[in-house]
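ok trying this again, last paste got cut off
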Amino acid sequence: MEFTGGGRLEVRITGADVGKRVSVRYVTESPAAGGRFTDAVGVLTSWDNSVLLITRKSGESVRIAESTLVAGKVVPPAPARRRGPSATFPELARATARAWQPVESETLGEWTLRASDGFTRRANSVLPLGDPGLPIADALTHVRAWYEARKLPAYVQTATGAEGTQELLCAALDRHGWRREVSAEVRIAALAPIGDLDADVSAVRLSRTVDETWLRRYQRFGEPSPAVRSVLTSGPSVWFASVAGTGEVPAAIGRCVVDGRWAGFMAVEVDPEQRRRGLATSVMTALARQALDEGASAAWLQVEADNDGARALYDGMGFAPHHHYHHYRWAEA
């Protein structure tokens, strides 16, 4: 990264650049940094009390003392992806939300408060896709009261790492006492290559309804609540896939929601004793072919950053990261 102007290192950013993507170089005394200087690239989310806060695309925040800066400049947004479908963050955020609809919801300006008896963070968190219509502190107070009335922890779902994502909101949540608990990637891919995979789909059964055997693999234990069925069956065009196992529990399952050009893949699970037999690929391929028949052309899924097995599988199918999403929880005193 070139920081020089006329042969000299320059700090060409100020507090007026908060909200912009920047690249900085600063002095560090940490041996782990690999030297005297280190660089950081991300969105400048605050510059208060002589401390800069830069949020990287992964959601990680870096605090840098102004006195340690040796260079800095505003940089353009990350280059557009060169493969797979094009997608804006708002388009993809709305498609993912339609595929996992809550039992109960309420709007607060352009925020949506969602509750589903505690079944998954996605269905029990705020989806903030714009202005809540209130100062942020007042909006968050309303959110906390709304979830407290339902005896649920208060979560806000945010995103980082793409044009139009919510680095500034993440920083505001952090300032107001909310803490990031879980992060994952939203990945996208062209759908046709998944449908064209050389996979044995003969044993994959597709259904419009979720039955008891499918839920046994998904839940693994316990009796699913009505909220579980409600969330799983929500969406524009929902399909459930299963591969029979040796007993009453399927060897593999999956779920796909077809929504216009998008096909969203969720709940792909395989019996641990049946792994490395291509069952996950068979499930994905069968669902992709169904989605192609309905006119979809692009695919998305969500995968947690530490799920190395799933990440490797999706890499091989052509899925690439679009953005990261995070769940912030109110850190009660």
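PB: full thing came through this time. The longest helix spans residues 279-293.
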